[in-house]
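[Automated response] Your request has been received and processed.

Submitted sequence:
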Amino acid sequence: MSIVEVRGLTKVYGSGDTSVTALDHVDLTVEEGEFVAIMGPSGCGKSTLLNLVGGLDKPTDGQVLINGTDIATMSDKDVTQLRRRHLGFVFQFFNLIPVLNAAENAGLPLTLDGVSAAEARKHAEEWLDKVGLGDRMFNRPDQLSGGQQQRVAVARALVTDPDLILADEPTGNLDTRSSEEISGLLKQASEEWNRAIVMVTHDLHVASHAQRILLMADGRIVDDIRLDGQDASATVQAAMAKAGLL
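Generated structure:
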């Protein structure tokens, strides 16, 4: 089942001679439980694509369908509700609220959706336990390492049982060990918990945890690499050379 269908997606900033095409007629399908990494040089449209799929921005042209519904035609209120209930987000800088503890941060999407504090806390604690923070539920962000904070962010993304997780450079602010742990956790979310994952990353080792790697350049997807046990480093470097990105 397709969780995401992107058809002819285009995003142009500005107008006339000063216009910039950030995305140029991109097509993409992501299936249930599939882990897709997006790579490419700075300014190629990776984050723009992620923002449009997540309903954080509106396209100039084209469609973004989440579970068959075109979010570009939805009202802002309905898009907000869809994001809260069907999408999870993981960002580079964690975006945790400093005065809330791990359980309160992880349960926040449920609290904002009107779920009782007790129910939100119950689900938050379940997911914190699953991501390995069962002993840190009542610590505030400043009492956690960077890797632990990102685990809270992953639990927060999963707490509503979303169909899709969007991760924008989720390891970009972490050391090597923590990066490996978060990459493995996202892979687990795909394989064990059957969540579709779309992740933007500049790190080839992190991308190698995915099932597919999309290579972008100049607002387009120039290669769609299915790893299927292949050496990610050699395969992606060959694709980048072919696309003139090396």
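Summary generated for your ticket: Residues 176-191 form the longest helix (16 residues). The chain has a mean pLDDT of 92.
If you did not submit this request, please reply to this message.
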